[in-house]
Specification:
- By secondary structure, this protein is mainly alpha-helical.
- The chain folds into two domains: 65 residues, no CATH class; 98 residues, no CATH class.
- Helices cover 40% and strands 0% of the residues.
- It contains nine helices and no strands.
Length: 207
């Protein structure tokens, strides 16, 4: 025999928001913060604070992608494709050939080759149909000037929680995610939106 119709049970079944519950603080900043964290911090260890253009160049974050895209095909781990017996994927091998001289970009063959206009010497070579941007060249030069530190693949680096950045309006910050969000907004000259009312937040999370 079926139970008598219960309107509240039926409402709960078709819409979870109909159940009485104690709402936690759910704001647009928290949702935005999670999105920014996932998108802008691919590797937490060694990541610079948001908006910091003067942060030290990181090998995994900044340098490896450039070398992998433009250099490793001829100067990487594949010995059958390697040119000039030069490996740039291993620090010791690159230093042995003076391709990289830590702290001395002007003495590094890599820097000379990426800046030369001689088609016989320039790297990547014209036949590769690859060309470094001015920003990539500057980044490689700065990385060498800073010591040319290599890093293991990010998958083998133990994650480390980054310190929350300082903000101009600490009263607005209620958690670490807020600190990263506000720091990014302040760097771009954007003021955060007012906190949404509870019914509005409930409607967002219930979609």
């Amino acid at each position: 025999m079926l139970s008598p119709f219960n309107e509240s049970v039926f409402a709960e079944a078709i819409h979870p928001l109909a159940r009485p519950r104690k709402w936690l603080r759910t704001s647009a900043t928290a949702v935005l913060g999670l999105s920014l964290t996932a998108c802008s911090l691919p590797a937490l260890a060694g990541s610079p604070a948001a908006g910091s253009s003067a942060a030290k160049a990181g090998y995994n974050r900044d340098i490896r992608p450039i070398l992998s895209e433009n250099c490793f095909a001829c100067h990487g781990p594949d010995k059958n494709q390697r040119k000039a017996k030069l490996r740039l994927d291993l620090r010791e091998a690159a230093l042995e050939k003076d391709a990289i001289v830590p702290g001395k970009p002007d003495k590094s063959e890599l820097v000379k080759r990426i800046y030369t206009v001689n088609p016989e010497d320039v790297m990547p070579p014209p036949e590769s149909h690859k060309q470094l941007t001015p920003e990539q060249k500057e980044l490689l030069e700065r990385w060498i000037a800073e010591g040319a530190d290599y890093e293991p693949h990010w998958a083998y680096i133990k994650p480390a929680r980054p310190a929350a950045p300082e903000t101009k309006n600490p009263k607005w910050v209620r958690n670490q995610i807020d600190a990263f969000v506000l720091h990014t907004l302040e760097a771009k000259g954007i003021r955060p939106s007012p906190e949404a009312a509870t019914p509005t937040s409930a409607r967002w999370t219930g979609c």
